Amino acid sequence: MKKKKLRKILSLLYIPAFVVSVSACGGENSDGKKSYSEGLAYVLNEDGASYTVRNVGLCEDRNVIVPDKYKGKPVTRIGESVFMSAEYLSSVTLPKSLTSIEPSAFSGCTGLTSIVLPEKITAIQDSVFYDCTGLTSITFPENITNIGDSAFRGCTSLTSVTLPEKVTSIGNSAFRDCTSLTSVTLPEKVTSIEGWTFTLCRALTSFTFPDGITSIEEYTFGTCSGLTSVILPESLTTIKNNAFSYCTSLTEIVLPEKVTSIGVNAFCCCESLENVVFSENLASIGDWAFQTCTSLTSIAFSEGLTTIGYRAFVDCKSLTSIAFPESLTSIDAETFKGCRSVKSITFNGTMEQWNNVQKGRDWCKSMPKIKIVCSDGEVDIR
Fold first, then answer.
1. Global pTM?
2. Is residue 180 within 8 Å of 204, Cβ to Cβ?
3. Cα–Cα distance measured from residue 106 to residue 131, given in angstroms and rounded to the nearest whole number
4. Angle, CA 18 vertex, CA 15 and CA 22 arms, to 5°
């Protein structure tokens, strides 16, 4: 019985030599010197000509140096989750031979403060530096083309990011919860920024989009409470749900001419928003789009607007004037409910056209009993 148990234990500990090997020696840098971390575990890649760092193995170094070569062959990859949650890790020196860092490779390395990525790296993969809360500096190689989902999410000490010129896309939640981030510089080639990218980046005060972005995705700047100004690109056509919700310091938004739709809750609770310049091609405003924008004093919709969604401007308590376009066909229920300060409403069409506009239940509840000024006369608000 004891022999059987011993054989079972030994079988569990057995690792085939052709899959993984642990370095006690065999690593070397390009200068031939063995100034590298020992004990890392490697796996031979499918090409049979290079190695991947598979896991930390027996290495206990706080300052890890990955060699250029292992057993005479280049080290080209850091494997998935290799250093995940290695809180003891203070620094990592990566070799010039490296071409890929796999997902979550350094996630949770809270002691890592800076990293320099080798020139052959072309992508930052998903969650690579997720929750590296001590990371203050990162040097990108010039050949990076995309930033993966949650790549830097939760890097709460990161203060500024300048992405290299070849970057074209930024993944979902890439910089989410980077609460100390004050500055982001994007290259002109960026055409895609996924949702939640800068959510909860409360220290970010301004942002300029590169021209080429056509859509601002859901929650891209959700709860960026320090954001005061945003410059939108001329290429923009759509602002999606919650894109700028709870940006409580945002004071003005100018919509480029190609914008055709504003999503649900897009500017919800932007309580400092004083001025909105609507685009001439805007056709629809989503439900709750500007609810509780308590500093908004006047609205002048452009011709082309047809529908205003449910509670789109509810509780905009400082709103005093509204100018509706002749193109308007429907106002949903409770759209302007709670807008108690409104003194002036104009409609750029006839009284008959105004009467034909579909109006939802209590669309103007709490408004004073004023007249709607049309092109050929006045009608009662109710």
1. 0.90
2. no
3. 9
4. 60
Low-confidence ranges of the chain (pLDDT < 70): 1-34
Beta pairing, strands 100-101 & 284-285: unpaired
Pick the CATH number of 205-382 from 3.80.10.10, 3.30.1370.10, 3.40.50.150, 3.30.200.20: 3.80.10.10
**Rounded to an integer, what distance in angstroms lies between the CA atom of residue 48 and that of residue 41?**
16
What is the predicted pLDDT for the residue at 6?
40
Contacts of 30 (CB under 8 A, 6+ apart): 68, 69, 95, 96, 97
Tell me how far apart the terminal alpha carbons of the chain are, to the nearest angstrom. Answer: 91
Which H or E element spans position 8?
helix 2-13
Do 20 and 54 meet the contact criterion of CB atoms below 8 Å apart?
yes
DSSP class per residue in 272-290: T--EEE--TT--EE-TTTT
Tokens of residue 205, six digits = 């005060």
CA distance 177 to 150: 10
Question: Cβ distance 318 to 295 under 8 Å?
Answer: yes
**pLDDT of 19:** 44
In this structure, the chain runs to a length of 382
Q: Which two tokens stand for residue 126?
A: 């998903």
Query: What dihedral angle (degrees, nearest 10) is formed by the CA atoms of 335, 338, 339, 343?
Result: 110
- What pLDDT, on a 0 to 100 scale, did the predictor assign at position 35? 83
Show the DSSP H helices in 316-372 as ranges: 351-356
Q: How many CB atoms lie within 10 A of CB 163?
A: 18
Of the candidates 220, 177, 184, 219, the one whose C-alpha atom is nearest the C-alpha of residue 202 is 177
CB 101 within 8 A of CB 121: yes
Which amino acid is it at 284?
Answer: S
Report how far residue 174's alpha carbon sits from residue 176's, in angstroms, rounded to the nearest whole number: 6
